[in-house]
């Protein structure tokens, strides 16, 4: 029998794929207790058909099962533009699970890490609680299925795309030092929608329009903050193609180098390394126009260090997949320490992103990371909340100090 199903009306749907019938049975019962409908499979082709038809909110999958294997299945999910969450099951070497998780992240899937076997109810509950999955049939609106290119055009024309800002903190002092602009869609019917539901659908032209819109709005917000005495660095995510857009440079050309706010354009490591000469040229032009370049998701692109040295970059951002398990995984710790040392030797900032548990802060400080960001310190907030956050930074400093990391009293 290919499918075991425990269903109840008005529950979110999870589909499970694993060859072990005991695992399938236990997970079905656990999901039922936690308020989810579950459909469990032992064949990948049947599971893919179910995903196409029912659009489940959660896929729980092992990695060892015939053809296709687990990593190949992640690629098939990405090709189908699966917009829900993916939780991997253990049972393979931990290094293999971590590679699979990083592959999923790179493909644009929403990965929840891996769940060790035997599965513990408490750990599964913690994962689902974070997503607010349970007896209601849908994930939060920001994780709804993808939207069409035409809808995105209308959203751009109607100025429905808004910004939230992820705060970034100086680790040594706890000072709010900058923000990263994150786009949200304020949909007139659905409400606030996260980027995972619409960014993958952007055409190249729409991507350039959106980047210019984000930069223009972020600069306007930063001007307002500066008028209130709040001067922060401003980070904006861009693609390699976006950087060739002349309008992007013209938006900041009136700013002299060093004049606040400092604009940092974040480009992924893979894109930055694709064309060494082009990357160096673009980064040099940005510096001449008063902007800086950050290499985002550093550590997942297998960079040549000699090529990295050629790029006039100002910041390395360590990918969250290394930070998340820093305290439990010695290999992740070694990678983070090596990147921090590299940044220190190159004289550039090193930002650890995705900080969720503050117990990693002393380790990050000891390794030499200069800045941190993540939900454990602050979730993304609207523009009007940034001055309030900047005016009273004592709670953040106290939490950093309580973790065992240093947080001074610099104003």
From TrEMBL:
Can you give the residue ranges of the EAL domain? 145-394
GO terms for MF: cyclic-guanylate-specific phosphodiesterase activity
The domain of life is: Bacteria
Q: Name one GO biological process term.
A: phosphorelay signal transduction system
Q: Which Pfam families match?
A: EAL (PF00563)
Domain Response regulatory intervals: 13-132
InterPro entries xref list? CheY-like_superfamily, Cyclic-di-GMP_PDE-like, EAL_dom, EAL_sf, Sig_transdc_resp-reg_receiver
State the name under which the record lists this protein: Phytochrome-like protein cph2
Q: What is the lineage of its organism?
A: Bacteria, Pseudomonadati, Pseudomonadota, Gammaproteobacteria, Oceanospirillales
